[in-house]
């Protein structure tokens, strides 16, 4: 591939989405120059394992790379260590922290998201951790080696993944969640209730409807005071109370934002030549048209592929079915589609066995499937969700029903 091409695509962000854009551009035959701006010192790495395997007692402490060490040379992609500090869309130029200016033909924001700050006194005390980056995980790993009691603030995916990892190390774990159920934004009430019972059975003290009021120093340790007035001693506190899209640079450059950088169905922003992908992008949902921002590897990867096609001149709409996963100890949760609180849940299988799925029907149409330790159901669900399939709850609940068989049947998409 030529290195003196006139075209130049600059990608701000070296996470899953940004790396995928570069990879897919080359796969699509793009011959221009590609530069990825990496604002972390580490070689581009996978984030999901940081809250799971990386924190295990037998962890090697080595992050998993997003691509092999030869990828950048083989694909003729420049990985530039340094953050972008300004974008001039009129001049089509990006200024870096060291004063370097890069001209671009196409610019891709893959800036991701940052942890939402913990809004309570004591959040900045030593021993209080967030978990987003490799640096965060390394600090947390060191602290875990000497901890005995852990308090987790927030029962979302990250909080419960960490809680399970800490419990597997034999630590005392308390989880405080201000909402009425864990993973409430992502799961049906049926699935949330099952996870509540399961984590409590694993000796995790999961406390619902109980937020955090303050964190205080207590000798060499910490005390977390909850919104209920309870006090929980801890050697280590981890909080996971959501994330915020990193849009500051885009806003300063004049890009439209609304809970993310606004893009159209081709992932293009309101400024010519500029796209946004992954956690930082707010895009129109293919089915509803409503603005959606998703935080998942699938979305980052598929956004990267679609953005590359858009840069190459293809005008198709982004319409991939979203899917997610979370590993919490021995529990593998996989979700296809996005559920809503009013969806009708139908349980497939026996939750008592620890292997089952929940089909979510929206006015009789399959909208999402939540699978627990049931990979076959999840793979089938990814083929079925989003096809407008109208299914009968009694048929779904029949012991002989199989999502896998339904997917293999090749049911046509309704007109």
Task: Assign a percent range to the helix content.
Answer: 10-25%
Reported for the largest beta sheet, the result is:
5 strands, parallel
Detail the poorly predicted runs.
1-5
Count of strand segments: 26
Distance between the termini: 44 Å
Q: Please give the order of strands in the largest beta sheet.
A: 3-2-1-7-19
SSE-based structural type: alpha/beta
Average pLDDT for all residues? 95
Structure, described:
The protein is of the alpha/beta class. The longest helix has 15 residues, at 297-311. The protein contains ten helices and 26 strands. Helix content is 22%, strand content 30%. It starts with 7 loop residues before the first strand and ends in a 7-residue tail after the last helix. The strands form seven sheets. The chain has a five-stranded parallel beta sheet.
Explain briefly what this protein structure is.
The chain has helices spanning 16-27, 71-74, 134-144, 157-168, 189-201, 248-252, 297-311, 375-384, 393-397, 403-408; strands at 8-12, 33-38, 77-81, 84-88, 93-96, 101-103, 106-109, 113-115, 128-129, 149-153, 172-177, 205-208, 212-218, 221-226, 231-234, 236-239, 243-245, 261-262, 274-276, 281-284, 291-292, 323-328, 331-337, 344-350, 355-362, 365-372. It has 415 residues and is an alpha/beta fold.
């Amino acid at each position: 591939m030529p290195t003196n091409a006139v075209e130049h695509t600059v990608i701000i962000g070296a996470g899953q989405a940004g790396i995928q854009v570069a990879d897919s551009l080359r796969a699509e035959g793009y011959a221009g120059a590609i530069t990825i701006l990496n604002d972390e010192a580490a070689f581009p790495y996978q984030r999901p394992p940081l809250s799971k395997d990386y924190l295990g007692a037998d962890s090697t402490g080595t992050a998993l790379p997003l691509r092999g060490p030869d990828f950048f040379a083989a694909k003729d992609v420049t990985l530039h260590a340094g953050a972008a500090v300004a974008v001039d869309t009129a001049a089509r130029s990006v200024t870096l922290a060291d004063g370097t200016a890069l001209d671009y033909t196409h610019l891709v924001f893959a800036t991701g998201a940052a942890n939402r700050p913990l809004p309570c006194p004591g959040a900045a005390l030593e021993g209080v951790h967030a978990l987003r980056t490799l640096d965060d995980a390394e600090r947390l790993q060191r602290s875990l080696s000497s901890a005995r009691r852990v308090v987790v603030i927030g029962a979302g995916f990250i909080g419960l993944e960490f809680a399970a990892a800490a419990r597997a190390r034999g630590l005392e774990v308390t989880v405080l969640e201000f909402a009425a159920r864990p993973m409430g934004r992502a799961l049906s009430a049926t699935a949330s209730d099952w996870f509540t019972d399961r984590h409590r059975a694993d000796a995790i003290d999961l406390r619902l409807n109980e937020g955090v009021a303050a964190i205080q120093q207590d000798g060499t340790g910490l005390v977390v005071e909850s919104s209920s007035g309870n006090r929980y001693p801890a050697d280590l506190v981890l909080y996971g109370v959501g994330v915020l899209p990193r849009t500051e640079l885009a806003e300063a450059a004049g890009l439209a934002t609304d809970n993310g950088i606004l893009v159209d169905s081709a992932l293009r922003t309101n400024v010519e030549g500029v796209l946004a992908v992954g956690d930082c992008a707010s895009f129109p949902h293919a089915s509803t048209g409503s603005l959606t921002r998703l935080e998942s590897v699938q979305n980052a990867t598929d956004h990267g592929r679609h953005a590359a096609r858009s840069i190459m001149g293809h005008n198709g709409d982004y319409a991939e079915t979203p899917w997610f996963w979370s590993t919490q100890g021995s529990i593998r949760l996989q979700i296809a589609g996005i559920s809503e609180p009013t969806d009708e849940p139908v349980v497939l299988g026996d939750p008592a066995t620890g292997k089952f799925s929940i089909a979510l029907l929206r006015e009789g149409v399959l909208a999402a499937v939540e699978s627990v330790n049931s990979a076959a159901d999840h793979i089938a669900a990814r083929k079925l969700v989003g096809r407008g399939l109208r299914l009968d709850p009694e048929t779904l609940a029949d012991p002989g029903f199989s999502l896998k068989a339904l997917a293999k049947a090749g049911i046509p998409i309704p007109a």
